[in-house]
């Protein structure tokens, strides 16, 4: 009887300790750990409108977007004190995402996707004659 009571007491202590550690772990990171559905849906919907996706492509791209956003948030959180490592991992993530998009999209859709990505990543050149004092 004493052995059973002692075993039950130790088991309860271990479970309580593990539970407290998990609470602390979740408290360190803001949010519930899940990617906001609205963010994924909006990103996928915009891509669907621009690239004219079919339903199967939409479903596969939505899953890829969910993974990308979750991983992007994770990288930003884990490496917030190391911007160089953050940039390296984000560029790796972007390369993996482009490979996945290559599996999902048709060649013409992929070409349009890459041209839009390039346009969005290159800042617009300011007009030297605009906004000056001269």
Could you describe the 3D structure shown?
By secondary structure, this protein is an all-alpha fold. The protein has a domain of 86 residues. It is built from five helices and no strands. Helix 2 crosses helix 3 and helix 3 runs antiparallel to helix 4. The model has no long low-confidence stretch (mean pLDDT 80).
Radius of gyration from the alpha-carbon trace, in angstroms: 24 Å
Oligomer: single chain
**Sheet with the most strands?**
none
Order of helices and strands: HHHHH
Give the overall shape: elongated
Which range does the strand content fall in?
under 5%
Helical content stands at over 70%
Distance between the termini: 95 Å
- How much is the average pLDDT? 80
Low-confidence stretches: none
> How many H/I helices?
5
Work out the number of β strands.
0
Structural class: mainly alpha
Key terms for this structure?
134 residues, mainly alpha, 5 helices, single chain
Brief summary of the model shown:
The chain has 134 residues and is an all-alpha fold. Helices cover 77% and strands 0% of the residues.
Q: Helices and strands in order, then pairings?
A:
Elements: H1 2-28, H2 37-51, H3 55-78, H4 83-104, H5 107-121
């Amino acid at each position: 009887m004493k052995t059973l009571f002692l075993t039950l007491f130790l088991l309860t202590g271990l479970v309580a300790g593990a539970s407290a550690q998990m609470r602390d772990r979740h408290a360190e990171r803001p949010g519930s750990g899940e990617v906001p559905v609205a963010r994924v849906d909006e990103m996928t919907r915009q891509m669907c409108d621009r690239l004219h996706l079919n339903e199967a492509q939409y479903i596969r791209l939505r899953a890829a977007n969910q993974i990308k956003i979750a991983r992007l948030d994770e990288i930003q959180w884990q490496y917030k004190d190391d911007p160089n490592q953050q940039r390296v991992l984000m560029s790796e993530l972007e390369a993996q995402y482009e490979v996945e998009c290559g599996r999902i999209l048709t060649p013409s859709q992929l070409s349009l996707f890459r041209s839009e990505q390039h346009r969005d990543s290159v800042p617009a050149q300011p007009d030297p004659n605009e906004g000056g004092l001269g």
